Amino acid sequence: MDDGWTTGAGPSGRAIITADGPPVKMIHVSDQPPAASGPASDPGSEQPERPSRYNRSFGGLLGAMVVTVVFVGGYVGFRALTRDQPEIVEKVDYIAAVGELQSADVQVVYPCSIPEGWRASSTAFKRGEPPRWGIGFVTDDDEFVGIRQEATGVDDLLDTYVDEQPVHGDEVSLPNDLGVETWDTWSDSGGDLAWSAELGPPFEGQTLLIYGSASAAQQEALIAELTAGPVADC
Residue 183 in contact with residue 196, Cβ under 8 Å? Predict the structure, then answer.
């Protein structure tokens, strides 16, 4: 007996492997998947679609989002209005500004020092013959004091920085390094105070105005520190 394998092709063209032994019946194999077993389904009948558990429309969802945004925005706005907002005051180096002017042979009046807790909030300079000069200060209790040095009449300075119709007070003598012997005092209906003086050499024709919402004692303390000397001596 031959135990070897032989190959050949059947009537359908498929390769058939045989061996010595009784003949084997070949069953035709289909390439299609087998039909499903069980009762035949009716193509005309369909199972009803099961409704979703949450049946929410897009419009309803959008409306809910809008209400939420409006509520949050309203709350933030309310907190912004009712919460105390700190006022931020910029601090400037007025001594450095005076030093630059002095290096350019421009003489201005300034305080050699200021009380503890005060800060300079602004400086102003406009070229001219003579120039216009000013410094703004914020006190330790958040009141304002300003200095203005201009070749302008006192009435115009008061109209610009104090009031159109200020009340003229007493003349006073205050210690200072400017050689000013007498100061005119002023006030307005809002409680602002001012001191004015005509400057002597080297500032002939110029008026000096000290003004603001700070108390009389605070402004007089600033006047006592006024000088026109070199910043290096401060």
Answer: yes
